[in-house]
Design brief:
The complex is a heterodimer of chains A (about 240) and B (about 260). By secondary structure, chain A is α/β, with parallel strands linked by helices. Chain A has seven helices and ten strands. In chain A, helix 6 (about 185-200) links the parallel strand 7 and strand 8. By secondary structure, chain B is of the alpha/beta class. A six-stranded mixed β-sheet of chain B has the order 6-7-8-3-9-10, with helices on both faces. Chain B is globular, with a radius of gyration of 18 Å. The chains are: A alpha/beta (about 240), B alpha/beta (about 260). At the A-B interface, strand 1 and helix 2 of A face helix 7, helix 9 and helix 10 of B.
């Protein structure tokens, strides 16, 4: 089978020019390949480079060398070398990212924040809102909040809005950075089901899950990350 | 993928002996929004003036794919054709709305005038279009006959945006569009701009020193320092993983509220 997303020999050292040129090596020769229906959990101590690896996969972190290939539009795009407009097209149609924090857009109601990825795919606003509403309901966001901008929501509510936004377009590759970090047990279960449904439809997922129970539930394998590289893989 | 709408190659502009901007090149596709960031004096406005046809570059070329499908050399055009192009296909939103509005005539006339300049003649239709646009930028209809001097700063800026977009330009230049407005008014304006850019499929070049504005509105960023572009790329990559020392300084200097 072909990998939906694959990282090959990624190296990344942060150079902090403002702090006397301090060098922080994070990734050394990191590689990984994820096939349809898989959910790969990145596991390791904090500071080991899990988020850096995820961000390299998404393209908002630029590795010093290596490649990140994503299946897109019947071909393969290398995120490391692709032009910005090509990366944006890959993100619109093939590659999603759910971070812990919602970047709030002033004044846009939660329902439309969630519907936006579908709008970007050209779906009519009514259809997009129906789908968005279903997900918000599943994630237990009370309907009275849907018309409000999420700026005033609690941390957990914002995170669930962000999760809904990440899952709504059913993209073929999803990157998850601690999607359950501040959720209660009930909502953690909802997120776990969303992940399992994504796997069932053949999506490839890569995630960081601090919650061990969630990780065991959703991951098809775990890759352990030690400072400076991807150490090993366990089923 | 679509052809570039705007193609900038090696644009350099001197002010006498001093450098304004140096060797700037980039392409812009329809619907693409590029941000130019950097502190005051870094050459952002000089570059924007060159790009928008107001200041002739000392060297380099700027090409634009006109509505009729021909790629034109903006500064190779006769003055009159360039002015026509700027009026009919481009927009320019200035930091100070007073520079972009006619302060002596009504809000409605400010929006209607550009339509007349591109050939609209029917008074009723112009008035109707002006009303529609004032609505889109959230200016109440009963203010249509008031002079902009009676408007707040945020309203004036929204009026300037309506004046610029009413002729359905394909490319819009913005110089610090939210500068000088208080934060709550900025949020409204940002949301409005963001919606308009998406709905109208506008290509835009936005100069700003506000990185949060850049993150919200732009797809790509160019970071300028002392007249040169020192770093460029996808907006979230430049802001989340800045490589150049100057970009790191800019990003780390932002106060997180």
């Amino acid at each position: 089978m072909t990998a939906m997303i694959a990282a090959t020999a990624l190296n990344k050292t942060y150079i902090l020019h403002v702090q006397g040129g301090t060098q922080i090596p994070v990734l050394a020769n990191a590689s990984l390949a994820v096939e349809p229906g898989e959910c790969v959990a990145l596991h390791g101590p904090s500071g080991a480079g899990k988020s850096t690896l995820l961000r390299c996969l998404y393209g908002n972190c630029k590795p010093d060398s290596g490649s990140v290939t994503v299946q897109h539009d019947g071909g393969v795009v290398d995120i490391v070398t692709a032009a910005p407009h090509d990366i944006l097209d890959v993100r619109r149609r093939s590659l999603g990212y759910v971070s812990q924090f919602l970047r709030v857009i002033p004044r846009v109601p939660a329902l439309d924040v969630v519907a936006e990825p579908l709008r970007a795919l050209g779906q009519p606003i009514e259809t997009a809102r129906i789908k968005a509403a279903e997900l918000l309901a599943r994630l237990n966001i009370p309907e009275r909040l849907w018309k409000l901008a999420p700026a005033t929501f609690s941390g957990g509510e914002q995170q669930r809005v962000n999760i809904a936004r990440g899952f709504v377009a059913e993209l073929p590759v999803l990157l998850l950075d601690e999607p359950t970090a501040s959720l209660d047990a009930e909502n953690r279960n909802v997120v776990a089901s969303l992940i399992m449904e994504a796997r069932a439809r053949g999506a490839a997922l890569v995630g960081v899950f601090h919650d061990e129970e969630v990780r065991h539930k959703v991951a098809s394998r775990t890759i352990s990350i030690q400072a400076g590289g991807v150490a090993g893989s366990a089923a | 993928m679509s052809e570039p709408l705007f193609r900038v190659a090696n644009v350099t502009r001197y002010h006498g002996q001093r450098i304004g901007c140096r060797d700037v090149s980039f392409d812009l596709r329809p619907g693409e929004v590029v941000g130019i960031v950097g502190e005051s004096g870094s050459g952002k406005t000089t570059l924007l003036d060159c790009l928008s046809g107001r200041l002739t570059p000392s060297s380099g070329t700027i090409e634009y794919l006109a509505r009729d499908g021909t790629m034109v050399d903006v500064f190779g055009l006769p003055e009159a054709r360039r002015r026509l192009l700027m009026r009919t296909e481009w927009g320019m939103v200035r930091q100070n709305p007073r520079d972009g509005l006619r302060m002596g005539v009504s809000a409605g006339a400010n929006v209607g005038e550009p339509l007349m300049a591109v050939g609209a003649r029917h008074y009723g239709a112009i008035r109707h279009e002006a009303e529609t646009w004032l609505g889109r930028v959230e200016i109440a209809n009963d203010r249509i006959d008031d002079a902009p001097s009676t408007f707040s700063g945020g309203m004036m800026q929204r009026l300037q945006i309506a004046r610029n977009l009413v002729t359905k330009p394909r490319l819009v230049f913005m110089d610090e569009p939210t500068g000088g407005l208080d934060v709550s008014v900025q949020a409204t304006l940002l949301d409005l701009l963001r919606g308009l850019v998406v709905d109208l499929g506008l290509a835009a070049v936005i100069v700003t020193h506000d990185l949060a504005v850049a993150r919200l509105l732009t797809h790509r960023l160019m970071v300028m320092r002392q007249g040169s572009v020192v770093e460029e790329g996808l907006t979230d990559q430049v802001l989340d993983d800045p490589h150049h020392a100057y970009t790191q300084l800019l990003v780390s200097a932002v106060l997180q509220p």
